[in-house]
Amino acid sequence: MISSFYEKIVGGSPPCEENNPKILCVGLTCLDIVQTVDNFPIEDSDTRCSDYKWQLGGNSANDCTVLSLLGSSSEFFGVLGDDYQFRFLQDDMRKHGIDFSHCPRVEGIGCPTSTVILCSSSGSRTIVHYNPNFPELTLEDFEKLKLEDYSWINFEGRNIPRVLAMMQHVEAYNDSLKEGESDRSPVTISVELEKMNPELLDLLPYADVAFVSKDFARNRGHENMSEAIRNIAQDIKSGATIVCAWGDRGAMARTRDGTIVQSPAFPPPKIVDTLGAGDTFVAATIHYLNNIKLQSEKKENKSDIRDQVNQSDGGVTRNQNIESLQCSKTAFIDQSALQSAITFGCRMAGIKIGFSGYEGLRSKENIKHIHL
């Protein structure tokens, strides 16, 4: 898997180990009907496509696909239907080892569908989306999950009142861990601000990591990553991290202490398929940071055990400053980790757009197709 050559890419963290807590992606899945054309068709014309396929779509489902291919244990959480299109989507998730066992089900409602035109000559992708008023997740659905099973929960910025309630539910869970004696770790909360909806800013006070898209930033009047991060930083909570990707300009991020890091883009020799490039960046960045988090927690646990042993004298353990042992939920995201994470995300997005679909992320050999 691609996670086995981290060191070659950015000198970063090793791949995930088995039995680690999962990364949960909350949002919508849809069927992507993808057609590739040599030149974008003009209106009222008859054009032959060079390729045609169905594939799993939707931000959260795409995130899970990339996470799985990179070696993370991922779970999709969204409403599923019962028609043949949803059966196709579930088969695709099974193929990639994505857990969807907790998804609520509905009957008799069609599958959300995106018709995508990929243009070979320009590298553009044009999307026409159809949603037959498909039901959204509810807080009651979310409350049935066991939050201790997850290390990281990423929310797609949609269905804002309900997503806000879900994020508040996770924050309440994290707060409960501080109050009592627990060996459980807080869940990292991230959110994607992609759609051009200003109400998405209401979600920022509950996010540990916010992913801001180019479209959202430009709709807010920001002409570059630096300007977007500087302005959106006014709405985040203390200690949160902001990440902003900007296509061929790469990505920029702000650490919890205000330090800015940046990565260039890593385009392939030939752009083949840009569909899902943003999702690949988000998922790869989460994958990298979550590995850092899990490693830091293991080191902290070992350190705590050594401290208890060293401070034990004749069967009596000396008093410890418990608060000094507790780390911020985002303390693992320091400048070095964030720099490496967004660089890894940009490199994986570069690999992805050089191939059709996402399977190119599975092979080590594909690293040869980008500039290292």
Attribute tags:
UDP-N-acetylmuramoyl-L-alanine:D-glutamate ligase, eight-stranded mixed sheet, 372 residues, alpha/beta, disordered C terminus, four-stranded mixed sheet
Brief summary of the model shown:
With 372 residues, the chain is an alpha/beta fold. The protein is 33% helix and 19% strand.
Structure description:
- The chain has helices at 6-9, 59-70, 84-95, 139-143, 160-179, 214-219, 225-232, 277-310, 322-325, 335-353, and strands spanning 22-26, 30-37, 51-57, 74-77, 113-119, 125-130, 150-156, 188-193, 209-212, 241-245, 251-254, 260-263, 312-313, 316-317.
- It is an alpha/beta fold and 372 residues long.
- The protein has one domain: UDP-N-acetylmuramoyl-L-alanine:D-glutamate ligase (3-Layer(aba) Sandwich), CATH 3.40.1190.
- An eight-stranded mixed β-sheet has the order 4-1-7-8-9-10-11-12, with helices on both faces. A four-stranded mixed β-sheet has the order 3-2-5-6.
- The longest helix has 34 residues, at 277-310.
- The protein is globular.
- Residues 1-17, 305-327 and 365-372 have low confidence and may be disordered.
Rg on CA atoms, Å: 21 Å
Sheet with the most strands, sense and barrel status: 8 strands, mixed
Helix content: 25-40%
Identify the CATH class: Alpha Beta
* Tally of structural domains: 1
CATH fold-level label:
UDP-N-acetylmuramoyl-L-alanine:D-glutamate ligase
Q: List low-pLDDT spans.
A: 1-17, 305-327, 365-372
